[in-house]
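# nightly structure sweep
# worker-07 picked up a monomer target from the shared queue
# config: single-sequence mode, recycle default, output format = structure tokens
# input follows
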Amino acid sequence: MPCRIMLVEYGNGERWLVSMDMTLAIHGGYELPADMLKMALSVKKAMEEIPARAASGDF
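# output follows
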């Protein structure tokens, strides 16, 4: 999941670029409830650490 952008192609041939960046979900639009915000920030941190850990051989 560390990839921030993916191409999704539907069965009817439509293609969409989808952003997996959680910043907008966390900081944009409606304010998240405190418990959900805490979980979302934890997931975002883990996703951002995956490439750095993999680069250092930490699997």
